[in-house]
Amino acid sequence: MNSTSKSTSCVVTGGARGIGRGIAELMVARGHQVVVTDVDGEAAARTAAEIGAAEGLAQDVREPASHRAAVAAAARHGALTAYFNNAGVGFDGDLVDLSEEQSRALVEINLLGAIWGTRAAVDAFGDAGGDVVITASLSGLGPVPGLSVYAATKAAVVSLATSVNLETPRRVRIHALCPDGVATQMVADMDPSGKAARLVNSGGRLLTVEQVAQAAVDLLGSRRVVRTLPGWRGGAMRAGALVPSQAAGAMALFAAQGKRALRKP
Question: What keywords were assigned to this record (predicted)?
């Protein structure tokens, strides 16, 4: 299929598993030609075959050229209309406990990856425009001890979305989705006795991959720039950001709630 067909295409980074795979499945069901990318190229190809996507590619989102290659691959299957900057890593731990390699990976994958992907997509959208959806996090809206570097990268991509959305023509829409804790391998790998795990689990039952993927896809075509999931948690996080000197008490309460949740079978 070539780019002159009436088909529409999209790219989902970090799409071999988890939220990315959920997004890719929904986009395939909507009739889009989906290019699934992942740092694990074999997993990307396998996922693409399993869900009926157009193509699966190896991609290191830290490399700007990798996003241009993903856009070019999508264009071979149809007009690019959506780019999901979903790839990310989530090492937990206090700032002083993270290794230099972990800190660098958080910034380069979570932030630079979203920057390069957004730029490549905006450059590639045709006259019909399109949507960029960045998988951010609730942690990007307020203080999250135990996830300080991760939260900093997510706050940065929320800022990226709000700013670039005003830089682009109206036909191009930039969105940041900020979910609470999600039942993914990243969360499962957190230190269960650490601050991050307690805070992530403080909202009750973790969100499902399906819930987050649906929320990401639902942003397409909308004018909404930042969406929190669930909405009430967004208000609580923003309150902490407005008065950070008073946030310690709230964080302690959330951590206690999360500790109780982690004890439940």
Answer: Oxidoreductase
Tokens of 126: 């045709």
The domain tally of the chain equals 1
Please work out, in degrees rounded to the nearest 5, the angle formed at the alpha carbon of residue 252 by the alpha carbons of 248 and 254: 115
pLDDT digits (tens, 9 = 90+) for 139-153: 999 888 999 999 999
**Would you say residue 34 lies in a domain?**
yes
Query: Is residue 37 within 8 Å of 60, Cβ to Cβ?
Result: no
CATH number at residue 211: 3.40.50.720
Domain, as residue range, for 147? 8-190+206-243
> Tens digit of pLDDT for each residue in 191-215?
777 777 777 876 678 999 999 999 9
**Residues facing residue 12 across a β-bridge:** 36, 84
> Is the bond preceding 230 in cis, omega lying within 30 degrees of 0?
yes
Instruction: Answer for the pair 199, 145: CB distance below 8 angstroms, yes or no.
Output: yes
195 domain-assigned: no
Is residue 114 included in any domain, yes or no? yes
Q: What is the pTM of this model?
A: 0.87
Which residues contact residue 97 at a Cβ distance below 8 angstroms, ignoring those fewer than 6 apart? none
Report CA-CA distances (Å) from 86 to 243, 254, 255: 30, 27, 27
- Domain-embedded: residue 86: yes
pLDDT at 2 over 70: no
pLDDT score of 261 more than 60: no
